[in-house]
Specification:
The chain is an alpha+beta fold. It has 4 helices and 12 strands. A hairpin with a 2-residue loop joins strand 6 and strand 7.
């Protein structure tokens, strides 16, 4: 299973006091919120997608996904994850290290306001929805394995980011699937206002897949 990352720009990540120990808390993921993924497809996470992984796996809290900056883990109780009706809520009691104290100071001063999570998809559903005459792929993640969660400096994507490359691989795999198993396009008026049209980058990936398969791209 390929690892992916999602970045959530949020305002509710904060540090609160629990006795003498600071606690970092906030939502690492939101359920049933459509997000534009690299201009290639739209994606949402279904409620319950993390239920099995937070019960069974030893998940880390990391700063900027860096394993050299460990803030906690679920196996020792320093990272606590819970699903509610909004999303995946994180509570992290970081260690008393200088690196962790620096992260706390950055969050307190609002230099760091975003969260991210690393995961792999175990179960998903795809649908092609037509909005304003443009077919757009929609992915619903129904089950995922979490590897890490935590605060990040840049809750956004850049063209050189490893996440962007993973988006292309996910999108290309979907295009391959559509070539082999065409799906019905559904017109979805409810999402007309919030769904962007397919970008030129997405179109070029689609046409490249058709050409490689020997299809007519005209």
């Amino acid at each position: 299973m390929k690892r992916e990352r999602r970045f959530i720009p949020v305002d509710d990540i904060e540090v609160r006091a629990d006795g003498d120990a600071p606690v970092i808390e906030g939502y690492a993921a939101r359920f049933n919120k459509w997000a534009d993924i690299g201009g290639m497809f739209r994606e949402r996470i279904a409620a319950g997608a993390f239920a099995d992984t937070i019960a069974d796996d030893d998940i880390r809290a990391l700063f900027n996904h860096d394993p050299n900056f460990v803030l906690g883990r679920t196996s020792n109780g320093s990272l606590r994850l819970n699903e509610d009706n909004k999303g995946l809520f994180m509570e992290n009691t970081p260690p008393g290290t200088q690196a962790a104290n620096d992260v706390i100071a950055l969050i307190d001063r609002r230099d760091v306001t975003g969260q991210s999570f690393g995961f792999s998809v175990q179960e998903e559903k795809w649908a092609t929805k037509e909005i304003d005459g443009t077919p757009t792929e929609h992915r619903t993640i129904t089950k995922a394995r979490l590897y890490d969660v935590g605060p990040v400096t840049y809750p956004a994507y850049s063209v050189t980011d490893v996440s962007t490359r993973s988006f292309e691989e996910v999108y290309e795999a979907r295009m391959e699937q559509l070539i082999d198993e065409p799906s019905e396009t559904v017109v979805d008026d409810e999402e007309r206002e919030e769904t962007p049209v397919m970008t030129s980058k997405a179109n070029s990936l689609y046409l490249r897949n058709r050409h490689d398969k020997g299809g007519d791209s005209s």
